[in-house]
Fold each of these.
Amino acid sequence: MTVLVGLDIGGSKTHGIRFVRGEVAAERTVGSANVQNVSAEAAGAQLEELFAQIGSDVTHVVAGAGGIDTPEDARRLEELIRPLVRTAAIHIVHDSRLILAAGGFDTGIAVIAGTGSAVWGCNQEGREARIGGWGYLLGDEGSGYWLGREAVRHSLRRMNNRLPVDPLTELLLTGCGLKAPEQLIALFHSPHHGRHFWAGQARHVLTAAARGHEASTALLQQAGRSLASMAKDAAGQLGIPGPVVLGGGIGMNAEPVQVAFTSALADAGLTDVRILTAEPAMGALRLLQD
């Protein structure tokens, strides 16, 4: 009997689904087990908690995680999972592959916009393309972290120009427990507030935009266009028109990002665009079958 656990290991959380004979039997969510964000010890502890809740008596594990760029990256994650599942077959992929599979496709382009961002695609000849996924220091355009950082930069630029606190800055300061924009500088560089924290501040951009704040709307539109640009590059490399599947917390929930993303791709002649509605970990079942 096949018992599969699919893992979606993101920058903010780890979501696991247990499948028995192809049907969902249980699912649990714990903290991030992504070693790009937390220590190996912390990641291992989160995985141990998840398997304790969801069950470790499995035959297969398919795990998708950001930052799986080399065989060494995959091996490191497998070493954390192996002690928890004994003899189960373990398959490690980049989390963008879960997005495409969860959307119901074997070929196409997956765009993930969560804490970070990345694009992965595959055509019918099996040729693959990878765009972005460089991490927050080098890229992650259109991601939650990018939006949080840009909200800080927006607030500091206004401070430098002696402009009053606007709605986005007010939300950001309140959310961070601060009284003045200049305090954002030290907080941003504090070792106690990593990219997960700043990705969480993206919510203030969404709130301000929903209330009519034009600068926040512009940031969300820029995020959508940046993600579309990466998807367009992948489509060009692979010579395919789609489908393009947008996933991740920002991609699945931020409507202004979705609208800008879809519009920019349509301008480039890519009209087969889907917004993921299933949990990415559901893609593990399709990947196992393949």
Amino acid sequence: YWSWWEPEDKDSLINNNINSLAVDDRYLWVGTKEGASRYDKIADKWDRYSRETGLPSQDVVAIVVDGYDIWAGTSAGLCKYPRMSDDPNAWVTFTSGIEIKPMVVSKEFARSLVSDEIWAIAVDGKNVWVGTRIGVSQYDKSRDTWTTYTQEDGLISDAISSIAVDNDYIWFGSDSGVTLYNKKNGDWTTFTVENGLSSNRITCIAPDGNYVWFGTFDAGVCRYNTKTKQWETFTKKDGLAHNSVLSIAVDGNLVWFGTNRGLSRYDKTTGGWTVFTQFHGPEDL
């Protein structure tokens, strides 16, 4: 009886537990439970990033492309990487320095990230928006300044699970509903089941022209028309694979939904649904 040990292939994915994905013209960026990986689509090769190369934590929860930079949110801080770099140690980390008590988070104290435990990131060109369990931090890249927003400012909850940039508006999702921030005039608007959401437990947000899609943890997906202010809900009975929606991708006239029971595709032109699962190909419903 023979057994042999093979060293792990370094030219591969760093870990199979994938939290987040981002793509740019050259690379696929993968955030995992054990670090980050970069796949070069042209050269067909993988690079790995871990705490050894400068990540503040192995657990990379969120990853986004921002021009020439990559922003990664971890369980121990935010970090930035020049995406074309060949130096695996080129990560720059931003942390809260000291953990500020939620009671004293006023503008004067918030000179850094509000919390190192990052749940969501979005970018709008000028700013990086970071969602944590105790508020939102806005990083102004050109001024190198941080601003913190909490329930006192207008958020419906301090625990922010998703963020989406929609031109001059920023959408924040939480377990208590949705908050909309107008960057131009500083207005805050909140939406809950009382306004038309099917559930207050928001998992993901995807702007889509005049519409915004909201995935919920337990009640399907909602679509908000920003012009007419009308809400629509789609659930399993309409053709969604499962009512727990974890991710949304807008693809022209199609919208894709990742659920606990497979992948769903909605065709905006026909209103038809297609479901893809592990055991079956497309099922037109």
Amino acid sequence: MSEPVVFENVTKIFWGSKRVVRALDNASFKIPSKTVAGLLGPNGSGKTTSFKLVMGFLKPSSGKVSVFGVDPWVRGESVRRRIGYLPEKPVYPDVPVYRYLRYVAKVRNASEEDVSRIVRLVGLSGYVWMNTRGLSRGYLQRLGLAQALIGDPELLLLDEPTANLDPLSRREILELIKDLKKELGITIVIATHILPELQEVVDYLLYINRGRVVESGMLEELATRYYVDAYYYIEVEEPRKLASRLVVEDYVRGVEIRDKSLVVRINAAFKEELLRVLSLPEYSIGIRRVEMLTSELGELYEKLSGSSR
């Protein structure tokens, strides 16, 4: 399947009475299918504008936006049927949760069974008869995710889903997004400026600053290019034996021993050296799986920010 979202030389200008704002400036990027993409950048960098262009709420001043192969400004209704959207500051009517979600389902031609399934998926089962006004911030975000998922979207857009939440609620929402990533297998794009917990979720990164795309790519690729630390999961028959070999390597920053596995922290630029050690006959026989878990997103963000100044 081709990329669900493609921007080609997109510029978006807002004309005000006192000043002109160039929200996007000749931006080009693609979001790969079935990835969890982090759309990163400081406040005012163009993240929300990008989402509104994808949804067909805005028309680009120049350039081309393609969503599922069509122009969302021209065919907005058909495009939006395939997208779930959680805006940064959603507003809900003060009605029971279930009544609101049933209304959303009716608009999107979804069944009551779909509503019940999604309520369970996002952990709202105990709150369906509570009015939206009585929900905590964390549970309002669960409601936002629920309404976005109704209709089985192929693309999920989440605008600052953990903003203004306490640490526990942020953790719960991120865990929920991780579950959605595993269970649904859809493309998810998360726009945020809050980094540390996001590194556990995203596998693709797009960094925007002042309306310009500074960098984009798979997280492992960017970690290697910018020499940041990465975490690799190694499923192995004798983890302690392998750990004792790896800890003497200069490029290894840390080793965590688990049951029949290791998590190894290295500078991503030394991935090939790690793979060389793992291919040695005394270790390779017992190794069942090697994969990158994540990288130090905060460190990568700092380097990208520095390169865009």
